[in-house]
Specification:
By secondary structure, the chain is mainly β. It contains no helices and eleven strands. Strand 5 and strand 6 form a beta hairpin.
């Protein structure tokens, strides 16, 4: 299993970023996928989850209405569209499938 995130960066408050996670090594469309994040000095937290077919999604309360998780099962890729970013969204964002994790991508929200 391999998960490779991309799309992080530095953005001003109120800005947007789109993260991508390219998956390989398993039957992608059969499994739910998750995005987690970990801020400095804090525990890793679940941000969003999407079902295998993409019809069901769940979000942490802190990102509801601002973040959207989606997937393209033709490309074995899951996305996290992040809008109206806040300072407190600064973290390393990780793609997750069962016990497998990507390397993470840094998102920094700063003015």
């Amino acid at each position: 299993v391999q998960l490779v995130e991309s799309g992080g960066g530095l953005v001003q408050p109120g800005g947007s970023l789109r993260l991508s996670c390219a998956a390989s090594g398993f039957t992608f469309s059969s499994y739910a996928m998750n995005w987690y994040r970990q801020a400095p000095g804090k525990e890793r937290e679940l941000v969003a989850r999407i079902s295998g077919a993409g019809f069901s999604t769940n979000y942490a309360d802190s990102v509801k209405g601002r973040f959207t998780i989606s997937r393209d099962n033709r490309k074995d890729t899951v996305y996290l569209q992040m809008n109206s970013l806040k300072l407190e969204d600064t973290a390393v964002y990780y793609c997750n499938y069962r016990e497998s994790w990507g390397q993470g991508t840094q998102v920094t929200v700063s003015s």
